[in-house]
Amino acid sequence: MVDRVAVVGGGAIGLQAAIALADRDIDVILFEAGELGSGASGRAAGICYDAYADRRDADIAAESVEYFRTDDLLTDCPYLWFAHDDETATAIESQAARMADHGRDVEIINNHVVADRFPALVTEDIETAAVAHNAGYVDPEAYVTHLGERARAAGVSIQTNTPATVTVDGGVRVDGSVREADAILVAAGAGTSAALSELDSGLALGLYRTQALEASPVEGALPIYYDASTERYARPTPGGILAGDGSEMYHGEPTEYDRGADERFVSERLRGLDHRLRTDLTADRSWAGLCTATPDRDPLAGELEPGVFVVTGLCGHGLMRSPALGRAIADQILGGESIPGFDPNRFDGDEPVSLPFGVTD
After folding, report:
1. Taking Cα atoms as reference points, which of 77, 347, 83, 304 lies closest to residue 188?
2. At 131, phi and psi to the nearest 5?
3. Where are the domains of the chain?
4. In the predicted model, is pLDDT for residue 315 greater than 90?
5. pLDDT digits over 196-236, tens only?
6. 318 φψ region: left (φ > 0), alpha (ψ -120 to 50), beta (else)
7. What is the DSSP code (8-state) at residue 159?
8. What is the pLDDT of residues 156-176, one digit of tens each?
9. Per-residue pLDDT averaged across 331-337, rounded?
């Protein structure tokens, strides 16, 4: 019988799981090392779509998009991805066909159609493009605020600026004392390994630092877009654009990474945007975040050992998938089925982890 659950991590997934548990009359206490959303959730781009070629991933994403739309958190916006090299163009065509087979609202379009629909974009070099219509973006700060309010209203006890670690006997160590719980969920993003440091967990988890900026001005219709040939993404903002790339594997302490974007990234990304948008942009702000990845690009989500559950390794897609994954892990904690393919013990722990980008594999 599970009556009391401790959640370690106050990002989008931890909060969603805490709400789902509290809504079922479970006593939930949540520990966050900083402020709510101060990790990857608060530094995310907020892009959301259900355009996955894998049916399981597509269903998870579709449930999450519906949550955002129902709770009036989503700004609807089509998601466009395109290629300007033959290999990636062929991969996009194959990808889009599989998505359509799974019921996703996706279509292949040529560069002339892209130019007609999205006149702000430079399209002459595009060989193949696909557009997903069930898509949009979320303001991460507003989303975290929304979740915090919902969690407190549901009765979740939230303790911020409170680092916590899981003990070998199934407790949570906080400020030198141990809190007991019937089950523990660790959803601490880059801090997951630290939260599990007292256990011999052997998680196959890597960290990578990613960068983003906001720039303006932009005029004309603009989609969310991903240039699959250069692995660069962008989405509209009011009067401007949010854009990212500049990712690299990170091997330092999760609390010590540089949270500011590199000057080289900012200058190179602005040049790339100037090429793609036919405009001269000025960077308004920039930042960096720390994401988690796994050897096969699928999350580690499930029961790590008896009574200890984990959700991590979302490869930069944690916020967009948080509604469905938060509910799914809450179900599993209460005795429901595990998420197929996401078993956190499926690796030995010493497998190499690389940057989780690209559409050609």
Report:
1. 304
2. -130, 135
3. 1-46+139-205+295-361
4. yes
5. 999 988 899 999 999 999 999 998 889 999 999 999 999 99
6. alpha
7. E
8. 999 999 999 999 999 999 999
9. 97
**Residue % of the chain over a pLDDT of 90:** 94
Q: What is the pLDDT of residue 97?
A: 95
Q: Please, what's the b/e burial string for 202-214 (b: 16 or more CB within 10 A of its CB; e: otherwise)?
A: ebbbbbbbbbbbe
What whole-number distance in Å separates Cα of residue 97 and Cα of residue 92? 9
CATH numeric code, 1-46+139-205+295-361 = 3.50.50.60
| Residue 340 vs residues 29, 102, 195, 281, 346: alpha-carbon distances, Å | 27, 17, 25, 44, 11
What DSSP string runs through 270-293?
HHHHHHHHTS--EEEEEEEEEEEE
pLDDT at 360: 39
d(CA 264, CA 245): 12
Q: Identify residue 34 by its one-letter amino acid code.
A: G
Residue 8: name the closest of 44, 33, 35 by CA: 33
- Model confidence at 361, in pLDDT bands (50, 70, 90)? very low
Report d(CA 279, CA 243) in Å as an integer. Answer: 15
Measured between alpha carbons, how far is 31 from 8 in angstroms, rounded to an integer?
Answer: 5
Query: Which residues, including other chains, have CB under 8 Å from residue 195's CB and lie 6 or more apart?
Result: 8, 9, 164, 165, 166, 186, 188
**Residue 217: Cβ within 10 Å count:** 12
| Three-state DSSP class for residue 308 | strand
pLDDT at 239 over 50: yes
d(CA 205, CA 336): 25
Element housing 141 (H / E):
helix 140-154
Q: How far apart are CA 138 and CA 221, in angstroms?
A: 18
Residue 170 contacts residue 261 (beta carbons within 8 Å): no
